């Protein structure tokens, strides 16, 4: 087996490639206290077959398996992202016990453990904020725009909007010394200028704008007008103000020939492992947008090491799909900058993942527009001078 590490691959005996995992997406809860109109998680009803929150047994076995993993591969770093559903539904006592155990393991083994949580923010209070600060938990809140935009889509089970609660959570976290980031899901019908004004001028937060989850069974609205305008606004003004938008960063990196560092766009392997509340190990969770039980495996931390997921045919199918793109993608000038888009967006019932993204035409327009804006400002530097790229 070829083992992929920061130092490059080493050769084994079975001809397969093992990507040494440094990241785990951990589901602390299978349920949510909200009913967002676009949520991918509940598109697959199999999520209801798992325990509501992380079981004690799964928590104990995770600590065992993480210890084994770090020691076996001599890791100097690892990251766990707490996710859901709504991960804070696990409750303060259980969460505190879990993160205390993880921090104790970090101290004992001497590796750097990054812990982060993505939350809708509605359960944040002073005690939660203190826990996040005490255990050095990075926090990301979901805010889709101003009150009108946010409350149209991010609603609770009574149909009420949640904007005021999540903005209050932002203030509570800051008062405790925790500076959260923000994730927004693109609403193509809105003006990205309003979003920029809210996040930069009013809330003063770091943020990203995610492409809505969709595949070829859906008919998503065009996102090209939104992202081209977002890029123009950022490039003409906000970039000089040191505002970072990860999706745009990924586009710029890809167009300049660098790895994007993102699963959303850009060529590269998809190697995410997800752990569910019963300890089950599965591939990337967003694949649930494709079909019922598509992520199901027979693996569990009770009896399997974290790396055993890489022997699972479903996990390997996703890895292969992320690296072996559809013929149309291989001929595309944006092959590396786009990388076929998010692997989940390529799904169709007829061809599985062997398709360009459902957003293919949008990505061509977005990438072409961004390149046209960037190219006149790029230079080739020699020993003697800088030559404009378009003249080189």
What's the CATH superfamily, by name? Aldolase class I
Q: What's the end-to-end separation, in Å?
A: 44 Å
Total strand segments: 12
Mind telling me the CATH class? Alpha Beta
Could you tell me the strand content as a percent range? 5-15%
Q: Strand order within the widest sheet?
A: 8-7-6-5-4-3-9-10
Keywords: Iron, Iron-sulfur, Metal-binding, S-adenosyl-L-methionine
Domain Radical SAM core: 18-246
GO molecular function, one term: iron-sulfur cluster binding
Protein name: Radical SAM core domain-containing protein
Chain-wise SSE layout:
Elements: E1 2-4, E2 17-19, E3 23-27, H1 56-73, E4 77-83, H2 92-109, E5 112-119, H3 126-134, E6 137-142, H4 147-153, H5 163-175, E7 181-185, H6 192-202, E8 207-210, H7 224-238, H8 246-255, E9 274-275, E10 281-282, H9 313-323, H10 327-330, H11 335-338, H12 360-374, E11 379-381, E12 386-388
Parallel strand pairs: 1-2, 3-4, 3-9, 4-5, 5-6, 6-7, 7-8
Antiparallel strand pairs: 9-10, 11-12
Helix pairs in contact: 1-2, 7-12
Tell me what the structure shows:
It comes from Blastococcus mobilis. Pfam families: Radical_SAM. GO terms for molecular function: iron-sulfur cluster binding; metal ion binding; oxidoreductase activity. With 392 residues, this protein is α/β, with parallel strands linked by helices. The protein has a single domain, classed as Aldolase class I (TIM Barrel, Alpha-Beta Barrel), CATH 3.20.20.70. Helices cover 34% and strands 13% of the residues. The strands form three sheets. Strands 8-7-6-5-4-3-9-10 form an eight-stranded mixed β-sheet, covered by helices on one side. Strand 11 and strand 12 form a beta hairpin. Helix 1 runs parallel beside helix 2 and helix 7 runs parallel beside helix 12. The termini are far apart.
